[in-house]
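Handoff note, outgoing to incoming analyst
You'll be picking up this chain. Sequence as last confirmed:
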Amino acid sequence: MRHQRHLLGLVLFLAAASVGWVYLSEENAAEKMTHTAATFLAGLSDYQRDLATMAYDDPQCVAWHFIPKDHRKGLKIGDMEPASRQQTLEILKAALSEIGYDKATTIMSLEAVLHELEKSKSGGMIRDPLRYYITIFGQPKQDAKWGLSIEGHHLSLNFVVADGEVYSHTPAFWGANPATMKSSVGVGPKKGYRTLAVEEQLGFDLLHSLNDSQRRKALIAEKAPKEVRDAGEAQAPKLTFRGLAAADMNAKQIGLLRKLLATYAQNMPQEVAKGDLSDIEKAGIEKVHFAWAGASKPGIGHYYAIEGPSFVLEFCNVQPDGAGNPANHIHTVWRSTSGDFGIPVAHHH
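Most recent structure output, in case you need it:
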């Protein structure tokens, strides 16, 4: 019975998720985020509000992770009244683009798929699409500096709003298990659906467009690493500029590289995505490096990293999915070299 109730909750939650955008276009993302967050907090009980809020400088602000955990900061969606659940979705809508919002809610729905795939396993992880947590750091008011975390398995979104704009939106982690639905299980996406499909496909497309000497430069290891670097760390990994520089790519390859970067950037609201892509161009697209490790075809562990002066991006697909299919479990993360969580990177002398 609990399982049925949990799935009904999911169905209602995700049905609410597909309701259209109702915002006035004049508002920017920061204003939408601020007023949806304030409305959300106003609707909570005192006890819930205590869980959902922390001081802006609380050390937990920078404690992020995408692995399944017994305990997370914040207020769990599953512990909210329906109206507050809907408000959480409104915050998510404000913080992301329509594409990003669809991706985030799909990633949440994959927890119900894992629940089905792993039913026979005892003592496994808790798989629950409502086991996502929201935390608000500081007070969401106009002209205030405040932070937002929405996090659970395979999703960690972290924002800082300051001076009426989205001041920081990294680390942004997006994962998918199963990445490709190998069968329909009655919940979640249908058979054949691929979550983070474009992120994976364009990576392969760029790799396959390289000639032999470019490929030798791009390939940094025969075997893919098990994980993205510095997961859970407060700051991005140091720039190493591994692989092939865009300066050594032809126009068609640079076009693919730009398309791949835009695929990640466009998870965020338009003005945020534009800012990311313009930072990359300002610093010089020729300085962006593309590195590959592992297999050059699906179903076997593969990994890529793309680094530029302003960002570090990683994609890793090495783990099996919930049903045991190899390399069908994606981890991706976008990080800022100037400082995740809006905290400037300490410059070492």
